[in-house]
Amino acid sequence: MWQRQASATVLRARQRHVADWPRSAGCSHPAAHFSSSSSRYPAPREGIEWQKFGFSLATRDTRMVVANCENGKMWEPLRVEPYGPLALEPSATILNYGQGIFEGIKAYRTTKDRIVLFRPQKNGLRFADGARRMLMPPLPTQLFLEAVSTAVRENADWVPPCGQGALYLRPLLFGSGADLGVKPSSHYTMVIYVSPVGQYFGPGTSGARMQLYKSQQRAAPSGQGNVKAVGNYAQCFSAQRMAKADGFSDVIYLDVAGEYIDEAAASNFFCVDANRVIHTPQLGSILPGVTRDTIIQLDSDIQLKQQQRALKDSDIQLNVRKVSAKVALAAKEAFLTGTGAGIAPVEHIASDEESVTFGESPGPVTQMLQKMLSDIQLERVADNQRWLHDPFVQPDFSKDSFVEPTF
Ligand SMILES: *Cc1c(COP(=O)(O)O)cnc(C)c1O
Question: Which residues get modified to N6-(pyridoxal phosphate)lysine (predicted)?
Answer without folding.
Answer: 228
